[in-house]
Amino acid sequence: MQRRELGWDDTWEETWADACRPGLVPARVTRIDKGGLSVDGADVSFGRQLIVAGKKARDAVVGDWCGLDPDTARIELRLPRRSVLERRSPGADRDDLALSAKAVAANLDHLLVLQPLDVGVNPARLVRELVIAWESGAQPAVVLTKSDQVDASALAEARAAAGAAAPGVDVVAVSNLTGHGLHELRPLLRPGITVALLGASGAGKSSLVNALAGRRVALTGNVRESDLRGRHTTVTGQLLALRDGGLLIDTPGIRGVGLWRAWDGLAMAFSDVESVADTCRFEDCAHTGEAGCSVVDAIEADRLELYRSLSAELTRLDEQLEIRTRDVQRETNQRSRRKAQRRRPPT
Length: 347
Ligand SMILES: Nc1nc2c(ncn2[C@@H]2O[C@H](COP(=O)(O)OP(=O)(O)O)[C@@H](O)[C@H]2O)c(=O)[nH]1
Ligand SMILES: [Mg+2]
Ligand SMILES: [Zn+2]
Fold this sequence. Notes:
The chain is of the alpha/beta class. The protein has helices at 10-19, 123-136, 152-165, 205-213, 263-269, 271-277, 294-298, 301-343, and strands spanning 25-32, 37-40, 52-53, 65-69, 74-78, 84-88, 101-106, 110-116, 139-145, 171-173, 194-198, 238-241, 247-250. The protein folds into three domains: 4-78, CATH 2.40.50; 84-250, P-loop containing nucleotide triphosphate hydrolases (Rossmann fold), CATH 3.40.50; 270-326, no CATH class.
């Protein structure tokens, strides 16, 4: 594919001029499998060949622009990201390994957060995904899938619930089966624009990719990865180009979405809470039930509870990170002290 069709533009050209090294060509990561990466770009056609990530590009994810060495089939550098969808690494709460961010996809312009209507809108899950969506830097939209499974009144109810959970965000209802509502997403799918899909397993991400592409490009349903060894096992997502322009990133379903430092994302996802919080007449108000608090008066109790629990999660993460920084600092100090002692000449 041409680089421009993959989202390359003049700004990337400038970024590249700053970062590039002789012999490297720009390429975009289109897929990550267990064995390596797939990339695409005008000077390279490595669509089927697996690329190895060099030391400086180990953290590359789908959507990243990289510097590829065509001779060695290695990516040697990763360009700074414009946006990145990030969550907390899965793992037990106390596990130190879980104290890191896990990037899911990079350089997105729009992020579609999917909720299946057969199950119904799940506000807790939806707001969590909207927080990381806003934090990514991409523009979120909510897509209610499987509209063919509900009647008009249930649909209206679901729309209202999603709208309340996602202030300032467009809500679109679609059926991947009948194609109903898909035209509302078409304006997003412009040449060079990257749209990523986020949602629980079974939400209809891969089906939506296929519906928008007009052909089967993504695997749908509960197909186990082990059943497909050697075939398209989407491990950490893939980037697909649509015929009429537009790029889609299908991400794997994530069971639980742990937040990674996302205070800005929280403020955006709860703009309704934040705006009344500004009018609260109490200084240092926790908005937790004080009589006369404008937030408690204006915001629905369930919504306020979600806001509180997510900010508590972010506070806990900040505390854990602080403790770890202190531990690391102490260890470094001890090590340099021991080193200094060893160097001291015997008296
Ligand atoms: N009735 C109906 N079923 C759908 C729709 N979209 C997806 N499905 C079904 O829901 C299941 C999960 O879809 P899939 O696209 O694999 O979800 P993913 O895990 O989010 O990628 C599959 O059995 C699909 O056939 C839809 O719009 N309507
Ligand atoms: Mg899928
Ligand atoms: Zn208050």
